[in-house]
User: Fold this.
Amino acid sequence: MAHIDYYFATVSPNTYLAGTRLEEVAARHGATVTYRPLDIMALFARTGGIPPKDRHPSRQEYRLQELRRNAVKAALPINLKPAFWPTNPAPSSYAIIAAQNAGGGNLGALVHAITRACWAEEKNIAEDAVIRDCLSAAGFDPKLADAGLLVGAETYARNLEDAVSAGAFGAPFYIVTETDERFWGQDRIADLDSYLAGTL
Assistant:
């Protein structure tokens, strides 16, 4: 059985555009997934990336065009300039870590609910009320928004270190741990699917 380490950021538009396709692929191949939210700006700084606001205007313009096109392909609504972005990704990330530790809900649905709140619903995912609503919608106890904050902070920091060590440099980033096969971007999920099927 394959295992996938899934590195992502709750403020990443491409994490949002991944939807729940990773979960569909994992289910199809009987793969397990570990969700590893991290600080994407810190990952950029550690691996040679540049935050969107610091990129050349041509790159910024192209990024927005790509996001629009990819949203259409994914059949997902998107606001290219959301009201609450950038925002603090730590609280929503801690909640995902707490939910993964607690179990009992749908982690893929939780990640999608949080990223959708940012990129399509004009909500501030740093706010406890928004996080609680997302937890509830995904079948988790909303009190997890306030649980395990120390463990959450430690895991969040460790995820960054693990990502750098594993060769991840963006989000979303998928690594098949048994073979160290790496896939960067929501537009590589089909490749991940083919790889797990043994055809790539």
